[in-house]
Amino acid sequence: MTESSIANTAQQEFWNNVAGPRWVGLGGLVERRVRAVNDLLLARSEVAAGESVLEIGCGTGAATVPFAKAVGERGRVVGVDISEPMLAGARKRVAESGLGNISLVQADAQVQRFEPDRFDLITSRFGVMFFADPVAAFSNLRPAARSGGRLCFACWGPLEENRHWLIPYEVALRHLEAPAPAPTPPRTPGPLAFSDPDYVRSILENAGFADVGIDRETPDIIGSSPEEEAKHACIMGPPARLIDEKKPDDAVRETIRREMTEAFAVYAGGKEMLLPSTVFLVTARRPR
């Protein structure tokens, strides 16, 4: 992957040098948290045996492998990610699965030249909210789908409807000033960039997709221990971005982490910590 083949240079830097290594270092915690979203995405995509699937932002392959199992030996899954650390995790997962119908590509999907008219399904689990120019990105992806081919992806809803992030974000905000010079614009590339369904619909329609559908789902995020959830919140997602921006000293960081742990403990009464979330499952088609 050369510089000329990258449009999202900020995300390339972030996911190769910051978020990617952090994610992999959590040892599968992130993947375990969103198992319910995997199941929803797989069902909503209507993936079938023998199909060709293009997965954008495949990460460590937690959704890639289930899609590959669904399409079977006659099918094919191509997973694309901008992050080499994430793809290293995906290669390990694919090798452990024993599946031979998966290809992994390091690329910026906004500008990568994909084989035209090739894929029955283009999908993503939380991987399409980071494009520098979403309309350009989906315009680039559309020709890779067959005529009538499907698009199906999952994206996060608003922060206030995702308590797994809101809980630690409010803790961090108590100790840190709001992001400067003002709160991050809601459409800035990042996990919450697609939290407005009308905005998502306009992107896809302007990119030439048809039959856009957006369904709100409320799967539980499967938490681990309060301590692990606090650790996760300090290095991933909106709370972590605020902490990275403000760069508090070690004492403040420790106070934030401790108070996050206490806040998550309220939800840890049973054997499994379940944290409310809202995601959007977005579907569309390439016009025939």
Helix content: 40-55%
Q: What is the mean pLDDT? A: 93
- Total of DSSP H or I helical runs spanning 4+ residues: 12
Cα distance spanning the termini: 32 Å
Principal-axes shape call: globular
How would you characterize the largest beta sheet?
7 strands, mixed
Alpha-beta content class = alpha/beta
- What's the SSE pattern? HHHHEHEHEEHEHHEEHHHEE
Spatial order of the strands forming the largest sheet: 3-2-1-4-5-9-6
What is the tally of beta strands?
A: 9
Q: Give Rg in angstroms.
A: 19 Å
Low-confidence stretches: none
Percentage beta strand: 15-25%
Kindly describe this structure.
This protein has 288 residues and is of the alpha/beta class. 42% of the residues lie in helices and 19% in strands. It has 12 helices and 9 strands. The protein has helices at residues 9-17, 19-25, 29-33, 35-45, 64-71, 84-97, 134-141, 163-175, 197-206, 226-235, 237-246, 250-265; strands at 52-56, 76-81, 102-106, 119-125, 145-156, 210-217, 221-223, 273-275, 279-285. The strands form 2 sheets. The protein has a 7-stranded mixed beta sheet with strand order 3-2-1-4-5-9-6, with helices on both faces. A two-stranded antiparallel sheet has the order 7-8. Helix 5 (64-71) links the parallel strand 1 and strand 2. The model has no long low-confidence stretch (mean pLDDT 93).
